[in-house]
Amino acid sequence: MRELLALLLIILLVAISALNVLAADKLCSNIEAQLLHAEANALKSRWPEAEAAFTLALETWLNAEIYSHVFIRHPEIDSCTELFYDLQEAILSQSGPEIKALFGKLLYRIEGIAQMEKLKLGNVF
Amino acid sequence: MAIVLARTIIIYLTLLVTMRLLGKRQLGEMELSEFVVAALMADLAAHPLQDIGIPLLNGIVPVLTLFCCEVFIAAASMKSVKFRSLLFGRPSLLIEQGKILQHEMKANRFTPDELMQELRNQDIYDISRVQYAVLETDGTLNVMPYPEDKPVTARMMKLETEAESYPSIVINNGRVLENNLRWLGFDSNWLSKKLKSEKLGNPENIYLMIADRQGHTYIAKKENGENA
Question: N or C: which end of chain A has fewer CB within 10 A?
């Protein structure tokens, strides 16, 4: 009985882990796509379009709060949210020169979150 | 989460192998896999408690994974004798017919000082009195003295002894334990009569009462002012 319970438990853990990898990947891909769209518009100084795409990305991130707090280390979430608000400030003030660097930083963080959940040798060791 | 799961399994197996290589001396009355789980469990559970920045799941997943690993290892070792001896080792004979088996001592990295200490723990100060001493897989040393050095028993003396039964608690701090009373073959009437014959009144005045199937009892009254 105990062995069966352990087997079911390990299968459940593996299944949840696999779903979590997919969920993290999907969330980060969505945010990345919206951020890349916002960046493209911002670099062409199309600020209303950039702001709209960015707001969508920010909302996607904030709506995933429960998921992210359960599965992702909280310092990672905090630094990502901080970068979101730094970028929002730059977009709203339409400050051109630093905007590319801020997008780069945020995209790097988001990509990191997607990657750190993947079962790769580099992550395990 | 997948990373936490994979890391836990790797650390568990690594510890299992390294502790196995370190030998029985390190274990101290725990089986190898129990020792590994005990060593890991406390630390794993403590981290998410201390650091609220770590998701609780990062503490729960390793604990559940360790539980599964331990159950699988225990089941495999129950099923296969070979696996069991590979994982836990075999008991080692350290003394045979009063003679220390030095190659076994060396293989188990057991020093003469440690052997003497273990023997002294069992009130044996003379190795020549030991017929066999076995180092068990959990690190304990079991000693069998020569027959002439064994304590005398009633059987050896051909003495008749009274049958004994397992004593059970029937009153615990004023509460009657009905199940134990029934298991002993008595009922509340017997208990009332017993307490009356001892002039103790009702069970609420009793701190502890132990009885066996022969009706032998040990009774401790509550001290003055003690409440149930």
Answer: N
Q: Does domain A2-124 have CATH number 1.10.3470?
A: no
Per CB-CB distance under 8 Å, the chain B contacts of A6 are 67-68, 71-72
Residues of A in contact with B54 (CB under 8 A): 73-74
Across chain B, where does the E strand assignment appear?
92-96, 99-100, 130-135, 141-145, 168-172, 175-176, 206-211, 217-221
Nearest in space to A70 (alpha carbons), one of A24, A109, A122, A105 = A24
**How many cross-chain Cβ pairs, A to B, lie less than 8 Å apart?**
61
Would you call A25 exposed, middle or buried from its count of C-beta atoms within 10 A (0-12, 13-18, 19+)? middle
- ipTM for this model: 0.71
**What's the distance, CA B208 to chain centroid?**
25
Q: What is this structure's pTM?
A: 0.64
Q: Using 50, 70 and 90 to split pLDDT, how confident is the model at B228?
A: very low
Contact yes or no for B177/B184 (Cβ under 8 A): no
* Residue tagged 């199937």 (tokens): B213
